[in-house]
Amino acid sequence: MEQERAAREKEELARQAQAEQEAKRIAAAKAEQERLEREQAEQEQLARGEAQAQLAREQADAERRANEQAEQERIARDQAERERLAREQTQVAIPRVRTRSAWAWIVGGAGALLVLVLALLALRGVFTSAPPPTSVPQPTNVAPFAGEERIIGGAPMMFVPAGEFLMGSSEADKDAQSDEKPQHTVYLDSYWMDKFEVTNAQYKKCVEAGKCQPPNPISSYTRDSYFANAQYDNYPVIYVSWTDAKTFCESVGKRLPTEAEWEKAARGTDGRIYPWGNTFDKNLLNSSDGRKGDTTAVGSYPDGASPYGAMDMAGNVWEWVNDWYDENYYTNSPSDNPKGPSSGQYRVIRGGSFDLFAVNVRAADRGRLIGSRSNRIGFRCVV
Fold first, then answer.
1. Which of 24, 81, 152, 264 has the greatest number of CB atoms lying within 10 Å of its CB?
2. pLDDT of 186-241, one tens digit each?
3. How confident is the model at residue 23 (pLDDT cuts 50, 70, 90)?
């Protein structure tokens, strides 16, 4: 019996040893399989990464070529626009000044007659001595040209000549909202538009003079100290209400632009989608696509200027305009110098801001707000 028990124990030990050995073999095989799978996954990941990197390089090259082509097209369009505006400058509002032509002939004729009489009197010896020579008078009121820049009220302003332009969006713009339609022709008298959004430095002068209320608060989206920090003097003032903006413009002898004036200054007369043309380019403005995350100094994107030279008409900060908002205003708005609805709940804001995408920085996009303050809203003035 003892021998049988010993044999059984020996046999059991042998089976256990064999089982342990088999388990080790299986574990080793599994570990090896896992290692091979990891290596294969790493190789596949490397291959995918390389493919993605190659695709990114190809896309970057394609984007660069597209941007170069878009830039060439923009330059050509702007040149054509400037030439057209220059041609129009001599033809602006001819029907509105025809009544002056008769007076011009009368005055001119009277002047010629006076010269003739004086000449005859001189020949008869009425004048005993020749008058002293005088310098040739120079014109004191030279007519401005489209896109001319002058300092008015302490700030550079750009001239927008009288004439018609396309306001709103056509069906061809797939991003257009219903309140931008229908696209329609609007006539505006000439005006001057601030080249830049009103800056912290400009607004500080009004506050220090006791004419304007300070922004509230004085921070920005990512900066605790903004308005009071001289580092940001050349950045757009924010946290100002519609009333604050109106008060500032009036304090320097100007006013808030109408919605129509703002849009013409932003896009010119040809109905372009953005100030620079019809193709969005994140390098021409401060928007969400550029990932700045807050305001930038005014005029930081000179290549994104409008046909009249106004800067930052797309992105950076929304801008208050004078008009009340009406979703259906374009269906029955006046064709000459529209001033907006007579009343409403919201005021219109234009241009989009640093945290918005391409659809909201289009020249025809219409925002609205109940005249309150925001770290995304500033303004500019006209005269």
1. 264
2. 999 999 999 999 999 999 999 999 999 999 999 999 999 999 999 999 999 999 99
3. confident
The CATH architecture one would assign to domain 149-379 is Alpha-Beta Complex (3.90)
- Please give the Cα distance from 5 to 13 (Å, whole number): 12
Phi, psi of 199 (to 5 degrees): -95, 170
Whole-structure pTM value: 0.66
Residue with tokens 């750009």: 158
pLDDT recorded at residue 135: 39
Q: Does residue 82 carry a pLDDT above 90?
A: no
What token pair was written down for 349?
């804001």
| Residues 155, 236 contacting (CB under 8 angstroms) | no
Structural tokens at position 66:
């597209």
- Bridge-based pairing of strands 347-350 and 318-324 is antiparallel
Enumerate residues 6+ apart whose C-beta is below 8 A from 112.
Answer: none
Distance CA 264, CA 270 (A): 9
Helical (H) or strand (E) element with 367: strand 367-369
**CA atoms of 37 and 184, how far apart (whole Å):** 65
* 94 has pLDDT over 70: no
Where are any strands of DSSP class E within 107-217? 149-152, 155-160, 163-167, 184-188, 191-194
| Of 215, 205, 238, 177, residue with least CA distance to 360 | 177
Please say whether the beta carbons of 215 and 201 come within 8 A.
Answer: no
Each residue of 257-267: b (16+ CB within 10 Å) or e? bbbbbbbbbbb
Residue 377 is encoded by which pair of tokens?
A: 């809203």
What percent of the chain shows pLDDT beyond 70? Answer: 72
